[in-house]
Amino acid sequence: MNFKTKLIFSAALAAALMVLPRAEAANSGEPAAAPADASPDAMTNSATTNATSADSMTALFGDPVIAKGNGFEIKQSALDEVMVSFRAAAEAHGETIPPEQLPAIESQMLDRLIQIQLLLQKATDADKAEGKKEADEQIATLRERAGSSETLDLQLKAVGTTLDELRAKVTQEATAMATLQRELNVTVTDSEVEQYYTNHPAEVEQPEQAHVRHLLLMTIDPTTHEALPDDQVQAKKNLMEDILKRARAGEDFAALAKQYSEDPGSKDNGGELQPLSRDQMDYLFGPEFEAAAFTLTNNQISDVVTTQYGYDIIQLLGKTPAKKLALTDKVPPTDVTVADQIKNFLTQQKIDKRAPDYLAGLKKNADVEILDPDLKAAAEAADAAATNMPPDAVPEN
User: Fold this and answer.
1) In this structure, are 180 and 273 located in the same domain?
2) pLDDT average, residue stretch 107-115
3) Mean predicted confidence (pLDDT) in 136-152
4) Which residue among 288, 321, 354 closes a domain?
5) Spatial CB neighbours of 230, under 8 Å, sequence gap ≥ 6
6) What is the pTM of this model?
7) Are 80 and 189 in a shared domain?
């Protein structure tokens, strides 16, 4: 299933959830970047660098209030924290944020922080209970996908936060979202869910999936992404050819993966990945990996496959043909049913359409002021752009 939504706000998870799937995507079946960059040392180094950068900024320039309204203030440190996580997430994906885009991104993140504060002021006890429940579920999902609390802690360090800090922020955001949904009186009926299900057959189809084990020897540095020296690459090629011979001679593939594989997301699991579709496999490991995996028959072991990350060998454990999921089926690899997924999607669509005007009213009534001149200019530019959008467009607020 592939639903696309425009979230009104997600300050804490916007950064954290960008990078967290990276180290465990191969085990979760979620589309994400390849696991080659998920080395704990690299994550820790990135976290340390970014955290130090944020501390230095505060030490040099203090912690001024950059936005305020009735009953709340937002300091520079709050925005810095979000931006540090955002940058760490980009770095973990091997990406850089163009300097010219930073003002707009900072303005969007500040707007989301403001929205959260305004909505928290209107939260009821029921909203707070719903926020806590949702946050507990999201944290449990992150821990399950990470494989252990220790791995999750490392992943969180990569975006400059801790589990307690993330839980507090996710709880705030989930509470704000529950408040927003209640205030907007957004509901989705069973008939709307059924109509969407009927009218969008392609979106409720589970594509063909391949369930594989793999063993990766990397030919790039996991931290810098630079190619390894030629002699190291040749040594790994020789080792992989030897491993392939041993696997085809009958040695246990899972044991070989545990011993030799350099994919931290699957090594301890004997190289086993969650069942993946062609698109997921291509996105995670590249087209060469996907093409090899889907040409194998059960228990067959591939030749050495060369990808942008290194040398791989793949063992097919089985294939699942494409099928249309029933409303009561769970959406792989989650415990959420198709009906609930559609309901959540339609709910978010309605919120996206109604929320901008409502949130703009909240900001006006709360006399919100952006005190930082650069952020104020970026916010005014964003408002002007939104005003010029077509009437039926959904603002990407």
Assistant:
1) no
2) 93
3) 79
4) 321
5) none
6) 0.65
7) yes
